[in-house]
Write the structure tokens for this entry.
Amino acid sequence: MMKAIKRTIIYLGLIAACLLSYSCNDEFLGKPESNDVSIEDIFSNRVQAESFLWETYNSCMPLGFPIDWGKHNGMYASMLMAASDEGDVYDTWPSSNDHNTGVWSTADNREDDFGTHFKGIRNTWIFIENVDMVPDIAENEKQQMKAEAMVLMGLQYHELMKRYGAVPLVSEVLSASGDIMLPRNTYEECVEFIVGNCDQAAAVLPDSYPSEFMGRITKGVALALKARVLLYAASPLHNTDAPYLPGKETLTGYGNYDGQRWQRAAEANKAVLDWAAENGAHLVRASQDPAANYREAVEVQGNPEMLLANQSNGWWGAWSPMFQQFVMPRGIYGGWYGHGVTLNHANQYHTLSGEDQVWEDQGSYAEFASKMQAMEPRFQYSVFYSGSKWNDEIGTREFYRRTDGTWSDGAPLNGVGYMKKYMGRGNWGGGQFHWMVFRLAEFYLNYAEALNETSPLDPMAIEALNEIKERAGIPVIDAADVRYNTQAKLREEIKRERAIELAFEEHRFFDVRRWRIAGQEGIMSGQMWGLNLYEQEDGNLVYRRETFESRVWEDRMYLYPIPQSEIDKGYLQQNPGW
């Protein structure tokens, strides 16, 4: 969240705490208003009304970093990437391993807290319904603030929908005297609700704010949310005549296939790119080093590619926040275990010359180092492999198993190296990390994907894909190349580029679901691979390509189950297979 908002929360934290006291309840959809702080008090002046809006941001902005024992950000004590083919956590107790081994259930899913989304949604409705009574905020500004709240609401519904499918739509602040046991709406109704809110918000939101309010929701963010929601809606998981499991077809998707949904998604994503071109947003290209450009796009606050980011994540805490303990590699700035990057994922990257890297079952350390150094710039930035440098303070490290069976400093890990993306800004002095909610690169890839589905091999789809490849410093493609000269081949290259460019940003976990490929070998099912280094008696190292885990997938996992505690109340239908 932006710095101005964070300062406001600090100054007015007491008010926010009071507001939260009536935002929580055993019933996830709402509760009666508390007498401790009245609505009239909260919306009696600008300062207090703004503090509530900042708290609404705080309760609605996605955060993929694990930061606390009791909060479901990312997986419990790990990131979502560790529950996909992107990565793994070597230790067994973080909840990513529950998903990898298939032991999660209707009563125990530590990735998400169903009710927390509705607390955020409730905050948006409280603000929308009451901001008009504030006497010292101009009418046009009130409308803009309402629009911000509407987009925040849509963000929370999108987070729910990509996990659960259709959910209950709340259209007002609920109270105990009304009907709070709302059934699930249809998937189509949920999509149109978010899209309608985004359209309405985009009509009044500004294109930008003064620098002190950097990070607030703009027209571009409203367009971005609409575009992403429509891409998901057009995808095979939801847009199909043959659902992944029978039953509840209008809750898990549309219940039919319509190619116009891809067209609609293409148009919405093109609108984001058009808005960006008119308002100074663009891919980061300032450096001659593609890895430096990629790093800036991911890490640097206010860069021209960043549309919306959660700035609330701090660096160090004994027990909270615990970002560095959960995410940093072993022995680096207090890291407990780190996140290994699987060979399954590493094989998605190209070499700098645009070729596939090939790993034998065993080879010399010199071969290992040469092949790693030949990988493209985004890999060099994103993966901390043996023999590479973390930063000037930590330096170079090697991960290998000694002849006596013990591990070198920083090992063991599962994969080819540790996840390094996001974390270059940290040091023993601390750090501030933001979670990217929307960055422009996604929408080039969204547009390429949707356009290829509605207009196979469309030159504009290839052009959008090449914008990302060119910025990454790897060769561009063309339709004359036999590797990309059909719709299906281009589709696979778009998926591959998406896996690379958006790695570890909580896209892959959901992408493989919406594409309905999660059950394929080596994705969410079957063998996960790594490269392990072993010391030999002569002191040399060799690498070996080895499996570290066989993962479990069932098709019912395409959508999460509604928590059993809510099903037991008798008003929500469960997703198929659970």
Remarks:
- The beta strands are 87-88, 306-313, 340-341, 362-364, 383-384, 417-419, 433-439, 526-535, 541-551.
- The longest strand covers residues 541-551.
- DSSP finds 21 helices and nine strands in the chain.
- The mean pLDDT is 91.
